[in-house]
Amino acid sequence: MTLLNGKIAIVTGASSGIGRAAAKLFAREGAKLVINGRRQEALDAVVAEIEVAGGKAVAISGDVRDEALQARLVETALSRFGGLDVAFNNAGALGEMGPVTGFSLEGWSETIDTNLTAAFLGAKHQAAAMVGRGGGSLIFTSTFVGHTVGMPGMAAYAAGKAGLVGLVQVLAAELGPQNIRANALLPGGTDTPSSITNAPDATSELLAFVEGLHALKRMAQPEEIARAALFLASDMASFVTGTAMLADGGVSINRT
Prior knowledge:
- This protein is of the alpha/beta class.
- It has a single domain (8-247), classed as NAD(P)-binding Rossmann-like Domain (Rossmann fold, 3-Layer(aba) Sandwich).
- It contains seven helices and seven strands.
- It has helices at 17-28, 40-52, 67-81, 105-131, 155-175, 204-213, 222-233, and strands at residues 8-11, 32-37, 56-61, 86-89, 136-141, 180-187, 244-247.
- Strands 3-2-1-4-5-6-7 form a seven-stranded parallel β-sheet, with helices on both faces.
- The longest helix has 27 residues, at 105-131.
- It is globular and about 50 Å long.
């Protein structure tokens, strides 16, 4: 039996990395999907892969900071598939990096809006739709940065992602009576196109350093984080809400 059979899900940031892996996995597990990212062509490729495998998905490109886009994603789930059961709010960005004393207000605001305000906007519309289904699961991609570890130069990213943990706690308390669960997923270093280890100027020494930060001495593959999201999305996590669930390869506890 598939874990998401009959479920309808939204996945943002689905054009690559963790979101792409999660969209494909959720589809294999029986979910019908509305996927979002900023690049329509990349999203269409994900839809094609899902459909070839026998799944159903529709792609809508746009900026998650736009409330009208968030509303459209939910409306599409309702009109195309009949409801909404799962929302994986995965879209995010590192944003401006550098010391706080030199940080621009514009860079700060853009990063907070992308990583935190967009999640609020998604939850606002997603939760309302889930009430009509008798419950659901809200998932937000946070990070260990700003939760268990402080990394220089990442103030805005850390603040926005840490804010998601507070957001899910309130959502869990507010929406629990409606059988809606809310959880933050905190990955460790993951081998995605946006990872600093895949930047044009990244070196083998940088990769070795990042891998060494983890207790498992490696980075995650996107599919590994997607499986953690699947757990939170599915009824296997029926009594899990309000958590900051680490899937970080031990980077939070490692000192070796």
